[in-house]
Design goal:
The protein contains 19 helices and 14 strands. Helices cover 43% and strands 14% of the residues. The protein is elongated. The structure holds uridine-5'-diphosphate-xylopyranose (UDX).
Length: 444
């Protein structure tokens, strides 16, 4: 029989988790303070673009297993859940590297006083190590059921664009429990995830601290891998070598692996950039700041990609961007997403405009979010409109639509057939054969 589950926070993480838990057969209530978001979700439409999510939402709303509410009492009601997942955001604090935990804290502050019966709280949000133990203490002070309420950490490793698959077929499930005083959390998690565990997915039980660190260190490793290959791309540029061939050559070594070795304008999004910064801040608080100083370098290599792409563009148009017409294809931080948080593409477009160019941006899905973040850029309805009269064209997000562009057709629209391939996703020979000046990042 399915479990009764409440999921607090219905952003990327929470909405996906709620929908997927219902898909597994559980009775799920998604809880948020944002009633607009809930209205959209309740109508079967996610307020963001995630392939396949709307279908899972609709199916489970129809079969009655998935509902949404702003009411905490409804979620904690004796007839409803005693399994509570926290999936709210933990953004970067303003003006600091550290994570802002106010959303997590306020879920606990509102939920704990309502917990009169034994319950399990599973944190999924990415948090600084030590947060779960701290929240356990808060719960102890606020919940009428006192130490019958257990706080465990169950980090989420999902990627945007693959969120459903990553939730229903994860590489592993990590559960952090209080090793000194283990309660029912492991048993409850095994029940919640029984269908997934039955398929052979590894289920790792660790301390809460290890579970929290598993998430932050995974993201730190991925960011490091991308900055490593981008640093190699800088060397390739000056040495006349080719980063794609280099990545292939080293990636065949299974100890290295070819995945996440794509050089380009670097990483962005709502996770990697802020998570490595929060990790550095937390290590500093704990007195281990030296251990993570390399992440500063990872961050600066990544930011340098944006600056050097702007510089390359300026050089290619003859040394000054003033008055240049620039077409930017791609605004999302990666393809199959409408997310523009800390997007390298949009950041580069903005910098180029600030240097005096007129910039036309097109993205298949991220137009609305981009307009909100960067209202001063010009937005085109399609590739053709963005490229009309362009002195230079930049591909900054590797959408399928851009990979398949026809260089001959595009050449008839632009003023100058110059292209910067910021994701090394185009075939240089094909573009050069049509008369384009092709520039990859770290490629010949
Ligand atoms: C990431 C982690 O992958 C995921 O496990 C975690 O839960 C959340 O953070 P996500 O932010 O969705 O997921 O994106 P991801 O696919 O990891 O890409 C992050 C950024 O790195 C993107 O901007 C992408 O374009 C860039 N990237 C990725 C590269 O520049 N090169 C690569 O080889 C891979």
């Amino acid at each position: 029989m399915g479990c009764k589950i409440a999921v607090f926070g219905t952003g990327y993480l929470g909405a996906t988790h709620a929908a997927c838990m219902a898909e597994l057969g559980h009775d799920v209530l998604g809880v948020d303070i944002d009633s607009n978001k809930l209205a959209s979700l309740a109508s079967g439409k996610a307020p963001f673009f995630e392939p396949g999510l709307d279908e899972v939402l609709q199916a489970n709303i129809e079969n009655g297993r998935l509902r949404f509410t702003t009411s905490y009492p409804e979620a904690a009601d004796a007839d409803f859940a005693d399994i509570h997942f926290i999936g709210v955001a933990t953004p970067q604090k303003r003006g600091e590297f550290a994570a802002d935990l106010s959303y997590v804290d306020s879920v606990i502050a509102d939920l704990a006083p309502l917990l009169t019966r034994p319950a399990t709280i599973f944190g999924k949000s990415t948090v600084p190590v030590g947060t779960a133990a701290r929240l356990q203490q808060t719960v102890l002070g606020l919940a009428p059921a006192r130490d019958d309420v257990e706080v465990a950490w169950n980090p989420e490793f999902l990627r945007e664009g693959y969120a459903i698959r990553d939730t229903l077929q994860p590489d592993r499930i990590v559960l952090g429990i209080d090793r000194e005083r283990p309660g029912r959390a492991e048993q409850v998690a095994r029940q919640v995830y029984s269908d997934i565990i039955a398929t052979g997915v590894p289920f790792l039980v660790t301390s809460r601290e290890t579970a929290e660190l598993a998430k932050t260190s995974a993201n730190a490793f991925l960011a490091t891998k991308i900055s490593f290959i981008n640093a190699m791309a800088e060397v390739c540029d000056v040495a006349g070598a080719d980063i794609i061939e280099l990545a292939d050559a080293i990636g065949y070594d299974p100890r290295i692996g070819r995945k996440f070795l794509n050089a380009g304008v670097g990483f962005g999004g709502g996770c990697l950039p802020k998570d490595i910064r929060a990790f550095m801040a937390r290590a500093g608080e704990l007195g281990a700041n030296q251990a993570l100083t390399f992440l500063r370098e990872v961050d600066s290599i990544n930011m340098r990609r944006r600056a050097s792409t702007v510089e390359k563009t300026r050089e290619l148009v003859g040394g000054s961007l003033i008055g240049a017409r620039v077409a930017v294809l791609g605004a999302a931080f990666k393809p199959d997403s409408d997310d523009v948080r800390d997007s390298p593409a949009l950041n580069i477009a903005g910098q180029i405009q600030l240097q005096g160019a007129s910039v036309a941006v097109y993205d298949p899905k991220a137009m609305e979010n981009s307009r909100r973040l960067f209202p001063t850029l010009e937005y085109a309805v399609g590739v053709a409109e963005a490229c009309i009269g362009a002195d230079i064209t930049l591909v900054l997000t590797e959408w399928e639509e851009f990979r398949n562009l026809d260089p001959a057709k595009l050449k008839t629209l632009v003023r100058e057939p110059r292209i910067v391939d910021g994701r090394n996703c185009l075939d240089p020979e094909r573009w050069r054969a049509c008369g384009w000046t092709y520039n990859g990042l770290g490629t010949r």
